[in-house]
Amino acid sequence: MRLFVMPLVIVGAGLWISSVQSRSAEGETDRVRLFLTQVLEETARDPDQLSNALSASDPLLVDEFRARLQRVARESTHKVPRVVVRVGDFGAGALGSASHTALACYEGGSEIAVRVIATPGDAQLRLVGVFTPELRDFAPSPEVAP
Question: Is 39 part of a structural domain of the chain?
Answer without folding.
Answer: yes
